[in-house]
Amino acid sequence: MTRVTVVGAGFVGMTCAQRLAEQEIAEEIVLIDVIEGRPQGIALDLNQAAAVLGYQAKVVGTNDPADTSGSDLFIMTAGLPRKPGMDRSDLVEVNGKIINAVADYIKAGSPESKVIVVSNPLDTMVYLMAERLGFDKKRVVGMAGVLDSARMAFFISDALGGGVADARCMVLGGHGDSMVPMPQFSTMDGVSVTALLPDAQVDAINARTQHGGAEIVNLLKTGSAYYAPAAAAVAMAKSILRNERRLLPSAASLDGQYGLSGIYMGVPCVLGSNGVERIVELELDDAGMAKLNASADAIRKDIETLREKGLL
Fold first, then answer.
1. Is the pLDDT of residue 176 over 90?
2. 3, 19, 88, 175: which one is catalytic?
């Protein structure tokens, strides 16, 4: 039986559980949270929805880490979300403590599992998760680029008046304001975006993509995005569990790729049954490499904060 555990029953976590169940990506989905009753109530609601929609997956809600043992894959969503005016880096200490606690029970009960981290600041949290677990780093990956690329794809299709299903975009770097949209590697049904839109409009879309999460936070006032983040995390889980080997931009451990080492950062990855099967290196111009290096520097700064707080 394939078992996936979603850690955190907030909006992202509960939507991940819903998508996993409806798409029958796993036979059992465990939803765990520290708040008593919340994951159990969500699980009961989703299991009753199965009678209407006809999916066979079962959802189990729990507060006990022992119930996650033997999971094939974890989607880590737990953590404090951003509020208006906050940067993702503002969450380093509080979410770092949660990551370490969860890593300990993943390692104890599911030592062969793969892990997808969604918690912010993404690149720093997936680095911490990997260090705490001590797993092969190919088995630990962060959800960022799929979401950022999806945002860019919508903005491009909206500018062109439709065709979002034909949009394929690439965003590299950290999941924050230093992310690096790559319009030269983004297309509409194979046609380069740079051939379809004027430079000024492409630049505006790049900037909106970089601040796509903050735009939603500012509109919601009391929450952050969850439909698109959950969809992105589940797409990654599906590629891993079903060995689809999709090329998806993800936060992966770098060991010399793009001239960078010792960090997790968003790069094009082939995701399959082993986790990150390989990292694809794109040919970047000097400007692109400069932006990527600046993004890496921002991630290193957050990693240093983890060390200062005694979390590493």
1. no
2. 175
